[in-house]
Amino acid sequence: MASALVVNADDLGVSKGATLGVIRAHREGIVTSASLAVTTPFYAHALETCVRACPGLGIGLHFTLTSGKPVSPMHQVPLLVDGNGFFRWGFVSLLLATTVRAPKELLDQVEIELEAQLQRLINDGVRPDHINGERHIHLIPAVFDRVVAAAKRHGIPFVRLGRDIGWDHAVLGHWAGLALGGGMLKSWLLSRLTTRGRRRLGGGTLFTEHVASYLYTGRFDLLMKSLLKSPPPHGTLEIMVHPGVPEESRNLALGNSELERYLTSEDRRAELSACIAARGLLDGWKLTTFASLARERAEPMIVPLALEHVDQVAALHCATLTGLLSELGAPAVRAFYTGCVRARSAVGFVDLHNGEVRGFVLGSARPGGLKRAVLRQNPAGTTAGVLLGLLRRPAAIAWLMKSFKGPDEGGFDGDEPELTYLAVSPTYQKSGVGARLVDAFTRAMSEAGVPEFALSVDDDNAAAAAFYERRGFKPIGRYREFGAGHRRYRLRT
Ligand SMILES: CC(C)(COP(=O)(O)OP(=O)(O)OC[C@H]1O[C@@H](n2cnc3c(N)ncnc32)[C@H](O)[C@@H]1OP(=O)(O)O)[C@@H](O)C(=O)NCCC(=O)NCCS
After folding, report:
1. How remote is the CA of residue 455 from the centroid of ligand 1, in Å?
2. Which of 10, 156, 330, 396 is a plausible cystine mate for 151, CB 3.0–4.6 Å?
3. 11 backbone dihedrals φ, ψ, rounded to 5°
């Protein structure tokens, strides 16, 4: 199946040269989407010549606190501007100012300005389908929380929260440049902030699983061919580009000399040419926009468990399931599912709706080897997760030791194919999610040639036992483990 690809041009409206670059990269090249900055004098030009003239181009907000002037009345946002009325922040200074002390007044003004920028777009008839930040300021923790809240408030489906896949394509010959140019540090820091953002996101806001690339930002021409040759194994990709016509971006006076140098660099023309040349390289890709992706994801779907689901699955596991893994706590559970995704022997599915994991199922045709496979696939994460869990709950040591011994009374074949975990968020129980997950798991087992599989239910979980029995699972025995009784069931696939 073709991989979904959004090619998004940042910096629309930052300068005339940037806008002209976006228009050409869309009409002649592979750009399907653009993020519009509303804080410079070139906004009106972008609105007329690009947004209104290119109806197929997806448009989002390029939230800006680092160049141009605020949209809000100056007296409402004095902490955002310098003496000349230009934004006074850069990424690092804003990160430090909002993270070290998190001054409420400053954050309130960030929120006022964010709302004003969105309102400007909406008042001009634009329905933004995504938000990201100039200089990636949307990833700064205190800013991120406000961006997500604003996206939800306005029904904007996507924020930029993809994992950087530039590293998979980095060429040895570029390493020195990437290290000295700050690309490596930038990619590392933004990846950390992305991980944090995903943990805090909750449901309802979408993101592409991958982004390309913070590592190569501004030099996408160097990465384009290699990246398009090998689509990622799963998930959607946003390619972030900065095409431009440098000579049309001279003498800008945006209060940000670094940005002005960037817009007049020949790299902008190189990225524009790369976007046009890439038209012939789209085998295996389906070009799309954030709005189209959002429409597709509005339908609930069952998809294979992947890395981008792990945080939500782990939270759901801890909230709904008992057992040793839950006792060890969230880091151990996350490490387990990360290992499962990488281990070929695990079979997992999630029910996804608008980016929210509503339920999941996980098992294996060879459960006996699954724990070892998880440890092999994620040794550092698993060891750290288990140690952290034991530090937090020393009583779990006894459980861990017992788990090597097997059940206290009775027993079962630990190598028999098994559905090991099934859970549905309490909000969505009794709406058919559990049944669809069991069906998906049963189908996968049958397709793998597994004639039957087993599962265990706690004695005191009568609701789950009834759920399975009504789906044809037959009781095959009982055992006691960790001080509790369990029933064992089996289903023919
Ligand atoms: C057990 C569990 C996975 C079931 O998931 P679920 O999503 O609620 O299951 P479903 O909605 O598919 O089915 C539950 C019942 O709701 C009914 N149902 C389905 N859609 C419905 C709807 N729209 N309105 C009312 N009832 C509905 C189903 O018919 C089913 O009834 P039945 O069992 O009598 O046939 C879920 O309760 C859960 O996660 N529990 C906590 C964790 C747990 O115990 N896991 C199992 C460990 S072994």
Report:
1. 16
2. 156
3. 75, 10
